[in-house]
From TrEMBL, chains A, B:
Protein name (record): Transcriptional regulator
PROSITE patterns: CNMP_BINDING_3, HTH_CRP_1, HTH_CRP_2
Lineage start: Bacteria, Pseudomonadati, Pseudomonadota, Alphaproteobacteria, Rhodobacterales
PANTHER family (UniProt xref): CRP FAMILY TRANSCRIPTIONAL REGULATORY PROTEIN (PTHR24567), FUMARATE AND NITRATE REDUCTION REGULATORY PROTEIN (PTHR24567:SF75)
GO cellular component: cytosol
Amino acid sequence: MTANAAIFATQSCEICPIRYRAVCARCERDELAELESVKIYRRYAAGQTVSWAGDRMDMVASVVSGVASLTQQMEDGRTQMVGLLLPSDFLGRPGREVAAYTVTAASELLLCCFRRKPFEELLRSNPRIAGRLLEMTLDELDAARDWLLLLGRKSAREKIASLLTILARREAALNLRQPEGRIAVDLPLTREAMADYLGLTLETVSRQMSALKRDGVIELDGKRRVVIPLFGRLVSESGDDADGGPLS
Amino acid sequence: MTANAAIFATQSCEICPIRYRAVCARCERDELAELESVKIYRRYAAGQTVSWAGDRMDMVASVVSGVASLTQQMEDGRTQMVGLLLPSDFLGRPGREVAAYTVTAASELLLCCFRRKPFEELLRSNPRIAGRLLEMTLDELDAARDWLLLLGRKSAREKIASLLTILARREAALNLRQPEGRIAVDLPLTREAMADYLGLTLETVSRQMSALKRDGVIELDGKRRVVIPLFGRLVSESGDDADGGPLS
DNA sequence: CCAGGACATTGACCCAAATCAAGATGACAG
DNA sequence: CTGTCATCTTGATTTGGGTCAATGTCCTGG
């Protein structure tokens, strides 16, 4: 379980804090009653498939802890990740019977699930939840558009740096600010999953990680823990716009 | 003006048919009254910038005719298209003051604009319009995810083929079915815009177009008109899933 | 009709990342 | 402790698409 996940696990309370923040950030508590009555928690082991592309989906869910990935595959086996869901992200497609993507637990994963039909009913009857979902979907679309820039125009080194930055930012948003802008990230992804995210091969990911280490941009503590000594400085230097990403 | 655009231009009527289909497909007519009162049409010449990334945006809009592109740029000039808006598509980001992307008219463009504030108010007060916008946003997210697969894993030839297929499909959806599955597409994009869409250089786009022509997969009629002789067969052969795209 | 400029094509060469191929590391079962 | 298996690293080689440069093709306005 990642550091992210651990943090969230300790916050459990009667009204699931993640879902509260995620789906109903600004709703009154009584608006949650209906959702509350139909939620089901589900746990998946790292590597386990949550559902296959083409499966009938009658659940939607919110990520409580861990990391889920959406992937698309061509018949010849080429694979591209098309979604990376971290705690508080929404999973599912209201209004669609059939899943378009394969969902996999990248690390140990805890989902908070709702049956799709009642959830859609709730969307219809409760504009605030619908509005919140629209907002989340728009954010996800923005993230997808940054991802398009990454896949279309960045070099392998820049791709790796951007991914580490995305993960480090989410880490930083949750944790207290780290001293000196130094930040540690537990990679929730294998080299292969990173490659699928970045449109690279796992060999290239490995080589570029080694190169970033050699150049002193990152420190590797085991295979899955990355320390970025100058994260604070690097991120603040290069605003939040569509720049090449720091660490490059 | 593209064939698309011409078709739509002839459909003009009191209640803008595009907006009707796009934003309020299943709304009652009286629900449109409020929208109706605040709409403004705006026309842009091919190549003209509609708004720059970072600009204050106080409009949202619907594409009536023509093609608009959203692009993202890195400081060193590398450019990636992150959105391609055809007639009936929605433009704008309710809830955001500042535009994240540069919007350009790829061909001559007619927009139907609404002031953002009243539009947001309408979203709040009218759940059916909000629901419709959510549906459109989810569709756009799906399209973005197909685009991720294209950028991350497809060869130059496959990228071109996929783009032609996307344009041909929209053409086919509007026009009567063409005889023999033969279809003609007026490219609304320059080679450079195609390259920005596909994450390639314009030289590679040009070379691959020539190669497809040489191989008899497409016919070029001038620079901007493409005929795909076997479109019907190619598309039906390879279902609608995440395949490599036909024409490859 | 011709000149100028935007857009497109084609060629020669190069390089970043893919591919193919060994090994290294590390977690875990027995 | 040791063998197995998944994961990761590193090296040698190939190649698809980028880069640089020259040429071609329209369209438009004078």
